[in-house]
Amino acid sequence: MSEIGEDGRGLGVEAELTPTGAFRRRGSLHQWELHFGPNMTPMVDVVMVILIFFMASTAFLGPEWFLQAHVAPDQKEGAALRQDTRFRLPEVRLEVRLSADPTGTIITAFGREGMNLDQFEVLAAEVAKDMVPEQPAGGAEPIVVIEPEPNVPYNDVVRAHDACTKAGFRRVALR
Amino acid sequence: MRRTALQSVHGSMHHTGRVNVTPLIDVVMVLIVFYLIVGHLVLERQGEGRLPESRHGRELERSGKPLTLSVMDDDMVLVDGLETSIERLASVLEGRMAREPGIRVELRAGRDRPYAMVEPVVGALRDAGVRSVELVTEKAP
User: Fold this and answer.
1) Structural domain that includes position A38
2) Of the candidates A65, A73, A150, which has its C-beta nearest B57's C-beta?
3) Which helix (H) or strand (E) holds A161?
4) How far is it, in rounded angstroms, from Cα A113 to Cα A110?
5) What is the CATH number of domain B53-139?
6) Are residues A106 and A49 in the same domain?
């Protein structure tokens, strides 16, 4: 049996007891790497758990989409803006009223009453085809103002907004 | 001091006689942090409710930190995670707009909330001079 020093480098070779009881000889270089390399196990453990964390949190959070909504001015401010048309054409405002009904949300818009959300989506596409310019025109574009009643579910408000966006309206406001 | 090879190979086990618990502690610590964060998110989501669905929204490039408003179910609004009452919201927003003009505003509200709970927030945004807001939705399947 050979001997090794405190630093583990050994004095040439060292031995390891195998299951059969025999000694296997190992080079001192191999022994050095075995005992004195950085211990990667904790780092690998932590990295794996962090990886799982990010995978799980991504699945949990899910993708989020954003709908841009303008904030419609209140009645008084809106009336003042509409009167101040000295240097420009008055703004075209299309009002979409949402009201709650036992059968679902009822929409009154573009001169038609009693529509559900699917019917509104079709009509909005037809109206937008005639009214929305192909190129963005800023303030000259019509603005759709969604006015829900207080008991309308927020999901239906967003669906109405979504339908207007799909139709091509670039300015959709919430009141 | 010199040791034999056999003592060197099996020395640590003979000396300590214990399992190395360092990796276990590492993993447990990270799991605790994971559950703390997820628990916080779940609580926030429960208060806020499930987001409405949209098909024609867009993904935003996250440039800069937005101002996030979450409509909770007890007449409270979280402004960047801090609870604020509806009554104080307009003044809080005004202060924030004065400090960071042009900041992007995100509005989060549960799909089952009646609009009556969202309307005061829209009103506060109007009063604070905010003219545009991003409605946060889930991408519809």
Assistant:
1) 13-61
2) A65
3) helix A154-167
4) 8
5) 3.30.420.270
6) no
